[in-house]
Design brief:
Largest sheet: 11 strands, mixed
CATH class of the largest domain: Alpha Beta
CATH architecture of the largest domain: 3-Layer(aba) Sandwich
Strand order of the largest sheet: 11-6-1-2-3-12-18-17-19-15-16
Distance between the termini: 24 Å
Helix content: 25-40%
Shape: globular
Number of helices: 16
CATH topology of the largest domain: Aminopeptidase
Number of domains: 2
CATH superfamily of the largest domain: LCP protein
Length: 449
């Protein structure tokens, strides 16, 4: 029992009192709670749904005519665009459009409080940097916490990274991310938060498992979250509540994890053929609330590629750091060494080959309902020669595989899935800060609800 207690849940190196004060301060910032923190899924939602019709109309001219009418203006426009796209040489699933590795910046911007220009003076409250590699047909994604303390490009001084878009729009936001991470950004896609709710409703909601009961009311911020634990098809309002909720022990970290998980529900919804009937509504929403420097052809191919994503080829990570509230302002203080480690691994693809003979230590975190599966999993890992630590925790996120160091490469993860088939659909997370870890494990498998 004492040994079990020693293998406790781990957060960034910050004492408990400072972390609690940080979370309390976050809760008091009403202007922050008035903004919808979108997720990686929301951006893929914006990307794929903006021109998912492009994927369909290229192959379904007759369906377009049946929906919009033979002589309508939108039919003529869609068919004309389709002919342009058909004239290009295309490979399967749209991967050839990228040719080489590319970095795409995905931004979700908040409301500026007026109904004039939805992009002027708006903060980018969600920032995702995606690296797409057509050679391996894989996608890596780094979530950049909006409160990250950085130098804003263009002599704007030190501020939260989400302020860059408010100061100078997409150009300044791109430059700031490039300077902070030492990378080049090839393309960008922005989606306004007012469009997220509308797109989710247009799709008929998003199926997702809500891992805990969520009740919160902020009357001044017009935020009301009332969700029960279990399976749901979330409406636009409910999805906003799910993604914005952070009133638990994990605060922004838990919210980021929910954003990452939301991706699965969205990709599942995109597989529904009924999405095609929502084209007119989605097109109208997209024209107003999405902007990008990608061409129609590039977006269509990106949508095609996104529909064929293999979860086993997606690595995700959050920029490592720790919370700080000095001076009365809440910041996420980035850890320079670990940030560089994440960038090298997910953007520059510097990864050690799988060493199946390495003496790695595994960890298993599991809920009471998953005790039997956890015991069976430990036996399988022991049989492969790995030492395994276990710990039961009542509240855990969804099932995930967390790699904590460079010895646990994506190649190693693929090897492990071959040996342990139950891990086949487990989400891969690179977690050098050991937010979820048992003892000093090299990797941790979370068996959530």
């Amino acid at each position: 029992m004492n040994n079990m207690r020693n293998h406790r849940y781990r957060r960034p190196s910050q004492d408990e009192q400072d972390y609690t004060e940080f979370l309390n301060h976050i809760k008091e910032e009403r202007e922050d709670t008035s903004n919808f923190a979108k997720s990686l899924l929301t951006f893929v939602l914006g990307v794929c749904c903006v021109l998912v019709f492009g994927l369909w109309f290229v192959q379904n001219d007759e369906l377009i005519i049946s929906i919009f009418g033979e002589d309508s203006a939108i039919t003529k426009q869609l068919l004309a665009i389709g002919e342009v796209i058909k004239s290009h040489t295309r490979s399967s699933n749209g991967w050839s459009i990228f040719g080489r590795q590319q970095n795409i910046l995905l931004l979700g911007v908040d409301s500026n409080g007026n109904r004039t220009d939805p992009w002027k003076g708006t903060r980018s409250d969600t920032i995702i940097l995606m690296n797409i590699d057509p050679a391996t047909r894989s996608v890596n994604a780094i979530s950049i916490p909006r409160d990250s303390k950085v130098y804003i490009a263009g002599d704007h001084g030190i501020d939260k990274i989400n302020a860059a878009h408010a100061y100078g729009g997409i150009d300044l936001a791109k430059k700031t991310v490039e300077d902070t991470l030492g990378v080049h950004i090839d393309k960008y896609i922005c989606i306004h938060d007012d469009g997220v709710k509308a797109i989710i409703d247009a799709l008929g909601g998003i199926p997702i498992y809500v891992e805990r009961k969520m009740n919160y009311d902020d009357w001044s911020g017009k935020l009301h979250i009332h969700l029960t634990k279990g399976n749901h098809t979330l409406t636009g309002d409910e999805a906003i509540g799910y993604l914005r909720f952070r009133h638990d022990a994990l605060g922004d970290i838990g919210r980021t994890q929910r954003q990452q998980w939301f991706l699965r529900g969205f990709l599942q919804r995109l597989q529904n053929p009924k999405v095609i009937t929502k084209i007119p509504e989605i097109v109208g929403i997209s024209k107003k609330y999405v902007k990008t420097d990608m061409s129609v052809y590039e977006l269509t191919q990106f949508a095609a590629m996104a529909k064929g994503f293999d979860e086993s080829n997606i690595q995700i990570a959050m920029l490592p750091g720790a919370p700080n509230t000095r001076g009365g302002i809440s910041y996420w203080i980035l850890d320079p060494d670990k940030v560089q480690d994440v960038v090298n691994r997910l953007i520059y693809r510097e990864e050690a080959p799988a060493d199946t003979s390495a003496q790695l230590v595994g960890g298993i975190l599991y809920t009471p309902a998953q005790a039997e599966k956890a015991t069976a999993l430990k036996s399988q890992l022991n049989g492969l020669g790995y030492t395994v630590n276990m710990m039961q925790i009542k509240g855990l996120p969804h099932t995930q595989f967390h790699a904590h160091n460079n010895n646990v490469s994506n190649s190693f993860y693929k090897y492990l899935k071959e040996k342990v088939p139950s891990l086949a659909k487990t989400q891969y997370v690179y977690d050098p800060m050991r937010y979820y870890c048992v003892g000093n494990s090299d990797f941790t498998i979370i068996l959530g609800n």
